[in-house]
Every structure is written in structure tokens, then in C-alpha cells.
Amino acid sequence: MELPTQTCASAPFDHAKADVILRSADGVEFRVFMLFLSLASPFFETLFGLPQASDGTSDQEMKDGIAVIAVSEDSKTLDLFLRFCYPSTLAEDPCLDNLTEVLSVLAAARKYSLDLIERKVCQALANPKVLETDPLRSFAIARNARLKHETITAARHNLRHPLIPALFAEINLITASDFLALLTYHKKCAIAVNALMKDFTWMTNHYGNIDSCIWLFNRPRYNQYCCGQGTDTRFLPWNTSPLAWWTTYMQEVYELLQDSPSGDTVRTAADRTIQKVRSANCAACSGRVKEGMTEFSNLLALKVEETVAPIELEMDF
């Protein structure tokens, strides 16, 4: 088997006065200081504290008068790992926004008993930016690493997305049982939220009476005739036909929540409705739709979040 070509790592892992060399699996040599690694990691503190043979009989590889220790991590993982070990004045903590690097760094952190890095990995998986764009990938990585809080958080954020996802590379990190548990959780949340669309007590309790919600109805008494009335009998608050565009909104949200039971689903659909109503240039609705729909969608989104909150992801950790 051909050995990888040996090269020197970049700064700060190329110091001439370093007292140990870590050689990565792909042949990159990191010239580092035992003190920094020992202070950061109990593993390295124990390793470097082992007695060394004084009669020259040791088979320890040496280079430039210092020991060379081969490790199983590749150079990219080792570089990230070592930057956490070094003082911030010499090496800033690396950013772990790239989820493809998280799992290998976490494995190294556990192998070398460095709790700080594990906490940093947990923070990376719970990063709102990551969860908004890649909740499934976060879920798979967190589940593979048996990180309970991060797994549950990612599953909750995944409610913003369709029940059946597109194929993603990290799916190989979880078992079929894990994936089934995620889909079951998603479906239970959708079923629970569906009940909100069949009983509008939460709405009538919030507004009190129909006069507190005049933006929602044609009101002949006030000479407010505008965008037509909805005819869908599923959506009749106070047993009164609302404006047609609100009925259309509720029909859309009803369908969307069955696949994506999240407050974000409600608010995003409301934003679309506001734009549509304004573009229709209705004299009565254009000026009041934003205020009315913002309050209503925030209320419905809150009820959706409250409904799914008690539902548990049934998974052993």
C-alpha cells in the first residue's frame, strides 16, 4: 500500500519550536505544542505524560528530534480540531457552518475527550441559519451522534418542510427506524394541527365578537361591499360568510398544514394573501388587509406552535 505524501500543515501548525508532530491520515504533518493539547484534552495530557524509554530502544518515530504521532483523522478534520485546542490569540475557533465537517469533528472531540468541541458542535447544529436551510441534515447528524436536544430541535424545525423530503446525503447516517420515527412525529403534528381548522373557538375567543373583526366581512350596515363572500362552509367564523380572499387563504393553509404543520407555513401564506389582495386594488380591503391578516396569521401561527409543542419525537437516546 502506497503511503501518502508527507507535507507540512499551514500556520500556526508549522512552528519551528514545536515539540511534537501529529501526522494526519493523508500525510499532513502538524507541528504542535504538547502544552496546548494537554491543557485542552485529558487524552493528550495522559498520552504525553507516559514515560519514554531513555535507552534509545523505543520504536517511536522521530523527526527533527521530536516524536511523530500518526492519527486516523484526515488533515481537514485535524486542522479544525487543533484550532479549538490552541489559544485564540494563535488560532481562532473555526466556523462549523458546513455540516459535512461537523460529524468528523465531533468524532475527534469524543475520541480525544475534548468537551468544548462537542459543545461547539451542538451549537452549530442548533444554529438558526442551519436549521432553516438544512433541518433534515441537522437531524441526521444529531441523531447519529445521539445528541438528544439537537435531534429534537431539528425535528421540530423540519415541520416547516414537506412530510416526504427529497433525498439527502446524510440519510445514510440514520436507520430506517429513525426515519420512520421522524415521519411519524411529523404526521402526528399535522393531525393535531388539523383540528384547529375545524373549530374556530380560538379565533372567536381572541376577537370577542364579529365587530372586532370587521376587516374580514362584507358589512352592508357600513356600506362596505367589496371582494365577494366565501362559500366554503368549513370556514365560517361566527357562522358568517367571510370575504372570499380570506376563504381562499384558509383553504390554502388547510392544505399546506397537512404537509408542513408549522407557524411559518401560516405566516408565509398570509404574506402571499396580503400581496394578492393589495394587487387587486380593492378600495375597502387594500388598506386594511395587512393589519388584519398580520394579527390573524400571528394568532393562528401561535396556536399551531402551541398544538405541536406537547407532541414528542418517540425515539430512544
From TrEMBL:
InterPro entries (UniProt xref): BTB/POZ_dom, SKP1/BTB/POZ_sf
Pfam name, any one: BTB
PROSITE patterns with a match to the protein in the record: BTB
Positions of the BTB domain: 18-94
CDD domains named among the record's database cross-references: BTB_POZ_ZBTB_KLHL-like
Gene3D superfamilies listed in its UniProt record: Potassium Channel Kv1.1, Chain A
Name of the protein in its database record: BTB domain-containing protein
Originating organism: Suillus plorans
